[in-house]
Design a protein that fits this description.
alpha+beta; 2 domains; five-stranded mixed beta barrel; three-stranded antiparallel sheet; 10 helices; binds adenosine-5'-diphosphate; binds magnesium ion
Length: 273
């Protein structure tokens, strides 16, 4: 289970990103980068944050602790900024918090680079989950105490915005050409990349996928289902995610990072649904 904390103070907006994240203090004395259920994109992005963030953690990558941040109406009432007030009022209930890493800097690939194997693991997970937000323009990687931390998985699981036929999506290729870590894992040969793929795919078991989906609050799944005009059932929703995530691990995984892939030309993107 993810811990649930109660928001005590909305500190400031993090204007940088597209999901209107804010810095929030909670009753456990923690400070969290918070994504709001009331932000325009709905709860789909929050679902992806939990599923992919916890998958990353299970695969040994560093992700700041994720918590559920409970907001009460009261916090919005004390907020002077009208836009933020609306956001908070629309976000009563559970939101997503990520432990704030003080002093972390954005990864730029220049001052410091992670170990090659770690870069390849990040790329593998991004390819598996079709994360469209790990480009050199927008790496969503932080460097903290000379270690790599992955943040912002809200744009992974792109299939959940269109639900293309599951069979077609399972083999859909992922374009790594603009991946933020491409210059690092480009050092690996075909065999080494195949090893990374075999090792990581074996670790993403049906049990692990069910476990990370189990961490997602029912209310987010129901909200997203209602928004998409589907049955408002959390259980049916979880099954649906499995229908997309399990078959993608089967066969020869045409989406996996391979040696001599396209050279960096622009943003990494999944082939559109
Ligand atoms: N846990 C964290 N600790 C410190 N800074 C963070 C953390 N998470 C995100 N940030 C900073 O806030 C920015 C926006 O957060 P992000 O999760 O990427 O939101 P968005 O979905 O809006 O892109 C990041 O690019 C990063 O600079
Ligand atoms: Mg971001």
């Amino acid at each position: 289970m993810l811990r649930t904390v109660r928001a005590t103070c909305y500190v400031t907006a993090l204007r940088e990103g597209g999901s209107l994240p804010g810095i929030v203090e909670a009753d456990d004395e923690g400070t969290y980068v918070t994504k709001f259920r009331g932000a325009g994109q709905g709860t789909a992005a929050l679902i992806a944050e939990v599923v992919v963030g916890e998958l990353a953690r299970a695969l040994g990558l560093r992700v700041p602790e994720l918590v559920l941040v409970a907001f009460e109406q009261e916090i919005a009432r004390h907020e002077p900024d009208e836009e933020v007030q609306d956001l908070l009022a629309a976000s009563v209930g559970l939101n997503l918090g990520m432990d704030f890493l003080p002093g972390a800097v954005g990864y730029d690939g220049v001052r410091w680079r992670p170990p090659v194997a770690e870069a390849a693991a990040v790329a593998w997970l991004d390819a598996y989950t079709a994360n469209v937000d790990r480009t050199w323009r927008n790496p969503n990687l932080l460097v903290w105490h000379r270690e790599l931390w992955a943040v912002d998985h809200g744009a992974a699981l792109v299939f959940q915005h269109a639900w293309p036929p599951a069979a077609a999506w399972s083999g859909r290729v992922y374009d790594l050409s603009g991946h933020a870590l491409a210059p690092v894992f480009a050092g690996l040969d075909a065999e080494a990349l195949a090893d990374v793929d075999t090792r990581l795919a074996a670790r993403v078991t049906p049990e692990l996928l069910a476990a990370v989906l189990g961490l997602v609050p029912d209310e987010w799944l129901v909200d997203a289902a209602v928004l998409a005009g589907r049955e408002p059932s959390a259980a049916a929703s979880r099954d649906r995610y499995l229908e997309y995530l399990l078959p993608r691990l089967e066969g020869d995984r045409p989406w996996r990072p391979v040696a001599g892939g396209p050279v960096a030309t622009g943003g990494a993107r999944a082939v559109p649904a």
